[in-house]
Amino acid sequence: MTDTTRHDWTIDEVEQLFSLPFADLMFRAQEVHRANHPHNAVQMSTLLSIKTGACPEDCAYCPQSVRYDTGVEREQLVPLEEVRTRAQAAKDAGATRFCMGAAWRSPKKRDVAAVAAMIREVRALGMETCATLGMLTPDQAHELKDAGLDYYNHNVDTSPEFYGEIITTRTYQDRLDTLAAVREAGLNVCCGGIVGMGETTRDRASMLATLANLPQHPESVPINQLVRVPGTPLAGAAAVDPFDFVRTIAVARVVMPKACVRLSAGREAMADELQALCFLAGANSIFYGEKLLTTGNPDVTRDRALLARLGIQPLVPPGLSPPQAPAHEHEEHVHGAHCSHTGSHTSARPVSSCAATRRR
Ligand code: SF4
Fold it and tell me: Which of 67, 152, 221, 277 has the fewest CB atoms within 10 Å, measured from its CB?
């Protein structure tokens, strides 16, 4: 039951996991989790929007699309110095990975060069790096890898069957092609989706089967709850049943046992008890910091208090130094455990590109 290497999940099989009694699914997810990960440990990433707004794509959930009137102001690429300052602040607050997200369909040559410089800057601080820049060519993926990028985030967002209801300006295959380029370049893959866009349980099962049946499971699987941003086509979407959201986390944990499952967008609106259930279901990564690209995130103080109440410690990847806790805190860290369990975090995100599920 804890076998972790399957790549032949049928949608029916995954849907049956969703149909288990809640306690049975949670038990199974916990079994898989404890067999594959240090328990009571959560990896913490901080996300910075390095280029905000005016994206030509039409992702129905996204406030950064130029097609929707959401009040998001267009911003230019942030200066290198600001990236360094923000990454240092994230590290000081306890994050071990710094994710940089840009609202592009795909980056231009000069964009890749600029982001490569940012990657070098963040790596020099002793942090893992992640980027989400839209679709990539194989050459661009290699260029980012050569700059020291650890993870690339590009979400599939939803099932292949439901995808056309959400995005029309790029195909599902486009996304899979970018994921293949990222993998081929030797980067760790961060790829997940969004719950709450009107999809069925079978769509959720199909999305997770898609991810689990990739030639290699993503090292990081962000599961986002739709943030219903006014002005986007999904602003009026029905709220997700919290237990259905937890089930999605648990099923992701079961079908991709070694992946780091990230409790991603939507966390700001979640009660502490719901977040605790998500951790129990196998989530072992969070975004940490006050903002997720353009939407809110719980503040650092609340997060630290919640993790302390739950006895959860920061997960520090091998080769990285534990973050310095404020003097009044006596925080321990689980060291030597790499969330992705690839054993090569140096060889090797999000939000959209944008896989960016965005969390945008
Ligand atoms: S999710 Fe990414 S690709 Fe889609 S509109 Fe937003 S920024 Fe653009």
Answer: 67
Q: Measured in angstroms, how far is the CA atom of residue 12 from the centroid of ligand 1? A: 30
pTM for the structure as a whole: 0.85
Contact call for residues 217 and 259 (beta carbons, < 8 A):
yes
Token pair of 53, please? 């707004």
**Atom from ligand 1 closest to the CA of residue 132:** 2
Structure tokens at 215: 């030639």
pLDDT at 322: 59
Residue whose CB lies within 8 A of the most ligand 1 atoms, among 64, 133, 168, 294, for a mutation test? 64
- In the chain, the number of structural domains is 1
Q: How many CB atoms lie within 10 A of CB 157?
A: 30
Asked if residues 99 and 321 have their Cβ atoms less than 8 Å apart, the reply is: no
Residue 352 CB less than 6 A away from ligand 1: yes
Q: What is the mean pLDDT of the chain?
A: 85
Which structural domain, as residue segments, surrounds residue 337?
11-316+333-356
In a domain, 347, yes or no: yes
- The answer to whether residue 68 is domain-embedded is yes
Span 299-349, pLDDT tens digits:
778 888 888 899 998 777 666 665 555 434 444 445 433 443 332 322 222
pLDDT, mean of residues 245-261: 97
